[in-house]
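Box 4.2: Ligand-aware structure prediction
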Amino acid sequence: MTDIKPTTYRGRFAPSPTGEVHFGTLVAAVGSYLQAKKNNGKWLIRIEDVDVTRTVKNADRDILNTLEAFGFEWHDEVIYQSEHTHYYLEALHRLNAELLTFPCTCTRKQLTKTNADIYPGTCRDKPAPKHYDYAIRLMANDTEIIFCDAVMGQQSQNIKQQCGDFIIKRRDGLFAYQLAVVVDDALQGITEVVRGNDLLDSTPRQIYLQQLLHYPTPNYCHLPLAVDVTGKKISKSAGTANIDINIKEKTLCDVLRFLGQQPPAEIIESNIHDIWHWAIKHWQLNQIPQKRHITQIQNTKHV
Ligand code: GLU
Ligand code: ZN
């Protein structure tokens, strides 16, 4: 008899199909998966191909095949953002109706000339342009967004002062990641977002959008980013970060250690299912470090 009660926990993994699976991709996948499993919840996959200009052909298949080879099991059909334009449009219409948006015709060049990191509100009060060559920005109100990240602790950001009016639909007609991710997290009923630390900064904008759209705000948990010794995010070209499926047991153990877990050394000899079994049973969120160096990743590639 187990005393595990069913919960309504819904987590997700939302990779962008922009290239090969690398160590950082796997960290986000493993972290979100174990949180979902530990909470007896569901784990969903969403392919974030909203920016179709960055989509690499077959990268989605490559990601899903790698996940399958590692023994991940997901709930429901995989969702593709490129098929969700109508949902984003509907959200945009709701924001428009509340006069929270405005067209922006500023070029990058004009904006860099103003020398401001934050959009200075140039187009806020301009009449609507007669052409369609513009981006759509969301008005940033003087609102303080405060949230407590499960790993990074208390965070706060003033949307107006620290972020400014931000783009929700791009000049090229594509919806911005910030809007798409918020709509999809709500649509999929996500209760906790577990992802890489590079998105910690985006979270206040997402919570702000959730509030304006009357969506619930999920919990957030930002995992350490694999950075090199200079502090830069490791890139897919950094050979050490590529995933070799032939040594998946070792790779999974490396990811677990990267996330502060302590799998026993001899477990590498077991099969992947036994490692998962150990990992779910022993998963401890409070062991996740806030920062990690690439040097701490033990060679995931054959030497
Ligand atoms: N698609 C994003 C990425 O691959 C992740 C977005 C998210 O998890 O919210 O970096
Ligand atoms: Zn403008």
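In the box above, the bound molecule is glutamic acid. The domain at 86-188 is CATH 3.40.50.620 (Rossmann fold).
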